[in-house]
Write a structure and sequence with these properties.
Elements (H helix, E strand, L loop, with lengths): L6 E5 L3 H12 L3 E6 L14 E2 L16 H6 L5 E2 L5 H13 L3 H15 L2 H11 L6 E2 L3 E5 L2 H6 L1 H9 L5 E3 L1 H7 L9 E5 L3 E3 L2 H14 L3 E4 L1 E7 L5 E6 L8 E2 L1 E4 L5 H5 L9 E10 L9 E4 L4 E6 L2 E10 L8 H14 L8 E10 L6 E4 L6 E5 L5 H17 L7
Parallel strand pairs: 1-2, 1-14, 2-10, 4-18, 6-16, 14-21
Antiparallel strand pairs: 3-9, 5-9, 6-8, 7-8, 11-12, 12-13, 15-18, 15-19, 16-17, 17-18, 20-21
Helix pairs in contact: 1-9, 1-12, 5-12
């Protein structure tokens, strides 16, 4: 790679970081993608695969304050906060509740809609480019409710979708069964969003990105980056466990895409983001892929049911519990039980639990772009449950802002 190429380190090899690394390499930067684990093995590995540009409603919506007692007391609440973690979560929780003011919800929704724009077509094109078109399945998303009263509780979110141009169709029980005949009797009302999609193996999708990145000359290093230092000459130094050559630790630009662990690198620099881990769980059934034919959302329980390449994935719930607490096996068990209650044919199938840390901002809007007052430092942090959806537009935004009009190689 030519000496004139700007040297860029991307810290974090999930779907966001991997997509950024590929976009920067296409524009001619000398890019090193760094992660302490195999690319795609973190939060991106266990997500539900939804590409959902209609998800413009932030997690904090008006009335969320009334749900806080349930978050603390009801173990089956879709949004759960262990009581022991409350003191540490309190500052973030106060910002979260403040973000639910109608005026702030409107701002967040507008910013999310702008970030989501065009994501479906770009992901479809990227899957083709990477040689994995079969991973992109465009069959829409079906949201299910027990009854009209339950649907009415989400009316504000559906109004926001409609406002930003994401049409949907309401279904009765017969309409649900015509699309997904194995849905249990609990669900009598459906809402179908036709122009949404699913990546049926998110880990393989990230791996394909990284293969394309390295095929273009990009470098991947498996290291645990512990700290960043501004050298004062426009360059940055990375301190990593396992860095053998100090020259390999100096970069013109550093992109932080380390998910829920980003604060470990940013706090010492005086960059204090209101970032919290949105601990998400899934259970993967060994088989049962044909239980549904598309992403199905059990909306009253905030559970996503996805036909993955290697089985049926049932994921969801948000647990605000930090990075250090071990996974709560009960959360995964709840998902498995609800899936078996809702769909026939799962009772005899074995399942494997998983928990990952989704990086969440109080207003659900990620921080993307240059770090103020720190030339050469870039942020791509806080995508919550929309990291897959927004990875590609985040990558375009970072690459365009950093490298300007450099031509994009094909």
């Amino acid at each position: 790679m030519a000496d004139a190429e700007p040297r860029v380190a991307v810290v974090g090899a999930g779907v966001v970081g991997s997509c950024i690394a590929l976009a920067l390499r296409k524009r001619g930067a000398a890019v090193t993608l760094i992660d302490r684990d195999e690319p795609g093995r973190g939060c991106s590995y266990g997500n539900s695969g939804a590409i959902s540009p209609g998800s413009v409603a932030p997690l904090a919506m008006p009335g969320v304050l009334s749900s806080v007692p349930r978050m603390l007391l009801d173990e089956e609440s879709p949004l759960h906060l262990p009581l022991a973690y409350l003191p540490k979560a309190a500052p973030w929780l106060l910002r979260f509740v403040a973000s639910a003011q109608p005026s702030r919800v409107a701002v967040s929704a507008a910013r999310l809609a702008a970030l989501h724009a065009g994501a479906l077509d770009r992901h479809e094109a990227l899957a083709r480019e990477l040689g994995v078109p079969e991973l992109f399945v465009r069959r829409g998303h079906l949201h299910l409710y027990p009854d009209a009263r339950a649907l009415a509780k989400d009316a504000a979110g559906w109004r926001l979708r409609e406002h930003y141009g994401y049409p949907f169709r309401r279904l009765d029980r017969d309409g649900i069964l015509a699309m997904e005949p194995r849905v249990g009797a609990r669900y009598q009302v459906g809402v179908f969003v036709a122009d949404h999609a699913t990546i049926v193996n998110p880990f393989r999708y990230v791996q394909a990105m990284v293969r394309a990145f390295t095929a273009r000359g990009g470098r991947v290093r498996r290291e645990d980056v512990r700290a960043l230092a501004n050298l004062g000459d426009g360059r940055w130094r990375l301190a990593s466990a396992g860095t053998a050559d100090a020259a390999d630790a100096h970069f013109d630009h550093v992109v932080i895409a380390a998910g829920a662990w980003s604060r470990r690198l940013l706090d010492p620099l005086g960059l204090h983001l209101a970032l919290e881990s949105q601990r998400g769980y899934h259970v993967q059934f060994q088989g049962g892929r044909d239980t549904v034919s598309r992403t199905v959302v059990l909306a009253d329980r905030k559970i996503f049911v996805t036909p993955m390449e290697d089985g049926l994935r049932v994921g969801g719930t948000v647990e605000i519990g930090g990075l250090q607490r071990p996974p709560d096996e009960r959360r995964a068990a709840i998902l498995a039980r609800i899936a078996r209650e809702t769909f026939e044919g799962l009772a005899e199938l074995a399942s494997t639990p998983w928990m990952g840390h989704r990086p969440c901002m109080p207003d659900s809007v990620p921080v993307i772009g240059p770090a103020a007052g720190r030339p050469g430092l870039w942020l791509a942090v806080g995508h919550g449950h929309l990291g897959l959806t927004d990875s590609i537009n985040t990558a375009h935004s970072i690459a365009s802002a950093m490298l300007g009009a450099r031509s994009v190689a094909r």
